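[agent] plan:
  1. take the single chain provided in the ticket
  2. run structure prediction with default settings
  3. attach structure tokens to the ticket
  4. add a short note for the reviewer (M.T.)
[agent] executing step 1
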Amino acid sequence: MTDVLNVEIGALAGGSANLPQYEGTAVLIVNVASKCGLTPQYSGLEKLQERFAGQGFTVLGVPCNQFLGQEPGTAEEIAEFCSATYGVTFPLTEKVEVNGADRHPLYQRLVGVADAQGHSGDIRWNFEKFLIGKDGRIVARFSPQTEPESAEVVSAIEAQLS
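[agent] step 2 finished; step 3 output follows
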């Protein structure tokens, strides 16, 4: 699947996140939430950002409140939480729906790809991850429980940067 990044999505702070700006960049897209048992993954995501940003990579956090209301905050509250609690420097989009009738067009394009265990379709929980290659293709999908700094994720990112 190509052209994943040719989708409009608002930025958390207003305006447009302008996904086409990431053309030529490897992007790890992650649906995030502030009040989830997996929320500490923000630390690992930020470490990936710091480690690989200078090599043509970014994490893109996509807040979503569809899983037990675990992202209830306003844009300002989400931004403050991410910055103050986890030192997040990677970009965050507006809060969107990743499943159901109102699924954001970005996720309409992502969910058809299977992870290593063969799961495709609906997002299972917060912190499901999709790696987009520099060519705009979806190259990997990782389960919510897969830690950002796992060998599986890091090697997939490195393969896109080499």
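[agent] step 4 note for reviewer: The chain has a mean pLDDT of 90.
[agent] ticket updated
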